[in-house]
Design goal:
By secondary structure, this protein is an alpha+beta fold. It has helices at about 20-30, 75-85, 110-120, 125-130, 140-155, and strands at about 40-45, 50-60, 60-65, 65-70, 85-95, 100-110, 165-180, 190-195, 200-205. The radius of gyration is 19 Å and the shape is elongated.
Length: about 210
C-alpha cells in the first residue's frame, strides 16, 4: 500500500505572497480536478487539558478573514472551542497528492452572517438543524425521524424556518498555513506561511 507521487516541484518563487490567495489557487485547482467535496476538511479541537478530537465538516466560505463553517453550538467541537479556541484544519486532497494544514483561533461569526447563510440552505437542512441536538445522546433513529416529521409539519415547504439560537458559524483566523505537495521518494514539498507580526513569512520544511 505504497504510492509514488509524481508532481511538479513547488518553488517558493511561484507562491502568492498572501496565504489566502495561495489557498484560493489550490482550492480552485482541486475543484477543477473533480475531487469529491474539495471543501471537506478535518477540524481538530482539544479540551483545555489537551484531549483532542477530530471530525470532517464542510467549509462554507473563505476570504481574507479566514475559514468559516457552521455547526450546533452545543456540539462537541463548539463546546471545546468555547473552552480552547485553538484549532487545526486539514484539507486532504489525496487524488492530487496535496493537502493544506491550517492552524489558528476560532470564534463565532455574527448572527447576521449566520442568518444569511441559514436562509440559503435547503429547506430540509434547515429543519435538520432544529431536529438534531448535535453530539447529544438520543434514544433511537426513530426519535430523530419523529422530531424531523413534527418540524416538517410545523414548517412546510415554502414557509420560513427560524434560525436556531444554538446554531451558527465559526470562523478560523489562521496564524499558519502549510501547503503540502507529494513527490517521488517521499521528497515532498512542504511550504509553510507563518504570521510574523503583521506580515507572512514563507519557510520550507523537510518532508
Amino acid at each position: 500500500m505504497r504510492m509514488q507521487y509524481r508532481s511538479e516541484i513547488v518553488e517558493e518563487a511561484g507562491l502568492a505572497g498572501d496565504p489566502m490567495e495561495q489557498f484560493a489557487r489550490w482550492f480552485q485547482q482541486a475543484a477543477d480536478s473533480d475531487l469529491f467535496e474539495p471543501n471537506a476538511m478535518v477540524v481538530s479541537t482539544a479540551t483545555p487539558d489537551g484531549r483532542p478530537s477530530s471530525r470532517t465538516v464542510l467549509l462554507k466560505r473563505f476570504d481574507t478573514g479566514g475559514f468559516v463553517f457552521y455547526t450546533n453550538y452545543g456540539s462537541r467541537k463548539a463546546r471545546e472551542i468555547d473552552e480552547n479556541p485553538y484549532v487545526s484544519l486539514l484539507f486532504p486532497w489525496h487524488p492530487i497528492a496535496r493537502q493544506v494544514i491550517v492552524t489558528g483561533r476560532a470564534a463565532r461569526v455574527g448572527r447576521d452572517e449566520t442568518a444569511a447563510y441559514f436562509r440559503s440552505r435547503p429547506h430540509g437542512s434547515q429543519l435538520g438543524a432544529w431536529a438534531s441536538e448535535q453530539s447529544r445522546v438520543i434514544g433511537s433513529r426513530a426519535e430523530l425521524d419523529r422530531r424531523y416529521a413534527e418540524l416538517a409539519e410545523r414548517y412546510p415547504e415554502g414557509e420560513q424556518v427560524p434560525v436556531p439560537p444554538e446554531w451558527g458559524g465559526l470562523r478560523v483566523v489562521p496564524d499558519a498555513l502549510e501547503f503540502w505537495q507529494g513527490h517521488e521518494n517521499r521528497l515532498h514539498d512542504r511550504l509553510r506561511y507563518v504570521l510574523d507580526g503583521e506580515k507572512w513569512r514563507i519557510e520550507r520544511l523537510c518532508p
